[in-house]
User: What shape does this take?
Amino acid sequence: MNTEETSRYVRLRVELVLEIDDADAVTEAALRRVAEDSEMPESERTHAESTVREDAAEALAYLVDPFDLVGDVPGVELQQASWSSEPVAHDPDAPDWDVDDELDGDADDQGDGDYGDDSRIG
Assistant: This one.
């Protein structure tokens, strides 16, 4: 396949496992982010604030923005992004904990690129 036949679009998959050691700090930072979002409708803001207060994983999702990862990369433009967060049990020494297996996926996982909630992308 030559360059002309190769797609210009690239799916970049990133999986992170983070340890939240100060849930209050994460929640407060997320509440500030929600409050500063001038484009968020008031009804959505109320829901977001409630969700952030109830779940540190959701609070983290409001703080992580895929655009921040690629916004300054020359020659690329973010076309679509979606992300989600969830609490997980994490034991890096467990034999069944293998991030590479989860990232590889299977043939059925080659869909349209939706891997979470992309409602926060403008």
